[in-house]
Amino acid sequence: MVEEHTVTNDAARGANVYDVLIMGAGFAGLHGLHRLREDGFRVLALEAAPDTGGAWYWNSYPGARCDVESLVYCYSFSPVIDAEWRWSERYAARDEICQYLQWVATRLDLRKDIRFNSRIAKAHFDKNDQLWHLRTENGEEFLGRHFIASSGPISTPIMPNIPGLSDFRGQMIHTARWPTPGPDFAGKRVGVIGTGSSGTQLIPLVAEQCGQMHVFMRTRNYYMPARNRPLTDEDYEWWYKNRDDVRAKLNRSEISGGGDIMLDEDIAKHPNSTNGIDLRREERFEILEKRWEHGGAMIGYAFRDVIWNPEVNEDVSEFFRKKVHTFVGDAGLAEKLEPGKFPFGTKRPTVGTDFFETFLRPNVSLVDVKASPIERMTEKGVVVAGKEYEIDILILASGFDAVTGALTSIDIRGESGRSLKETWVDGTATFLGISLVDFPNFYMIGGPGSPSVLTNVVRTNEFQVDWIADLLCQMRENGHRIAKVKPEAQQAWADKVEKAATHGFWGKTDSWYVGANVPGKKRQILAFTGGLPAYRKACNVERDSGFSQYGFSHLAELADASVLLS
Ligand code: N01
């Protein structure tokens, strides 16, 4: 029997009560809104930006483009979307991704249930009325029985830890807060700090426009050529025939977050099915070479054991180190760009176009800030090894407080009144990366302890959205109002996450994967590294058991039920 779950307009408090409140209207938020609304729940999504787009909305820097192929960096849940949308390029530019999400919001009539320009400042679970109380920065309040955080794992930018940063008198821009319109670079002296995915995409394009560019490079990362190109009718013909198979493979895939699209069959069969160690060395290099020609994020993930077998990882790492020479020839420059001596894959590799070649331009200088870190900023520029590099514009491609930052930067408090930030001060423990002890009826998409950023995030988000919706439907059918994950279930999953991380090189390198880029953040692998199939299996077992690792309460069992709204 379906419980009455319509919204109650609580005029006394001047607030609306929803079945479900969703934080964020990016990929996961839009899907969550659609699915739960189809299930008959009253849902509202609160989005900080003026339109949908999620993290992509804010990352409008030149060259911003997804490095996962567009055919698999999109929804699979809707036949309407599948049939009506067509991507123009192998890798979608930021604008096209935003257009896609904005079109989806309109096509599925989601806009009426999204409140834009509404950044959530706090979210408290009130044990008296058993509701989530949300307040936005503009002072609006909303009440919800369930609260889903889909704020994105890579959405809270961080500034580099450099003395005197605020002394700089020129223009300073973080890639994830790019202004509209962007700056005019013509004739300007530009400094770039950061050569991760964002810096790698931006540097070639800004170098073409500006007068002089200094790139302050700390870690030399593994880089792969994207080989972007327009998608043709033939590509789409292939896609319609193979779409279901590709999606099923992504769900079975342990490391193939980007998908293997339109690869020759002999090389496509390798990831996830072949351990590199079972091949001869020459065969490994042959496969890598073929993948290099094909381009894209999956080159280095050719073998399922790349992240835990030292011999295989060293071959892959060496392959990329040698490849630098094919771009820049000159031995001196190639040495300055060669990836550092850390295992491939332990820091997210970058994918781009003309990145290495850009350092051959006469207006671009490479400043190695590994050996001599940036000393300080001055009014005029950046000081390294006693030399001041004068610049007009400083671009910070310095990254994000990943996975947890978007959650801990908001005042989210559970049943005991303890904040999420306090709860995670010594590390994150969650149940399936979705639920948390002391935070009833609270669910995270892409939370710590889920495979999130190590997989195709859109696909994993879809899976989590459906799982959470199934949980809410079951609760409704059983007349349950509150779901609390059992402490022993959370501990068991946290142990699994930790154990999985020991099987691999993850902890060996400083990267945002382990929170090393945020001062004071506990060093810990933030994602479940056991692979998507193992994760899906654990979630499916839990769903099939009737969500046995949760304790549920009926309305009547709740303390002081008289104050509850129904
Ligand atoms: O950030 P990053 P990002 N002095 O953390 C450097 C996703 N993404 O914005 O490596 C000097 O990777 C830092 O140096 P080091 C993707 O998942 C996806 O580029 O710490 N340098 C590094 O070079 C990606 O991984 C797309 O030594 C300093 C850089 O700043 C994630 O977002 C596009 C410094 C930060 O690199 C983050 O990427 C863009 C200092 N004091 C982003 N402080 C797609 O295409 C920091 N750095 C899907």
From TrEMBL:
It comes from the Bacteria. Its cofactor is FAD. One of its GO terms (molecular function) is flavin adenine dinucleotide binding. Coiled coil: none annotated. InterPro entries: FAD-binding_Monooxygenases, FAD/NAD-bd_sf, Flavin_mOase-like. Pfam families: FMO-like. Its EC number is 1.14.13.84. Keywords: FAD, Flavoprotein, Monooxygenase, NADP, Oxidoreductase. It is an enzyme of class 1 (oxidoreductase). Belongs to the FAD-binding monooxygenase family. This is 4-hydroxyacetophenone monooxygenase. The gene is hapE_1.
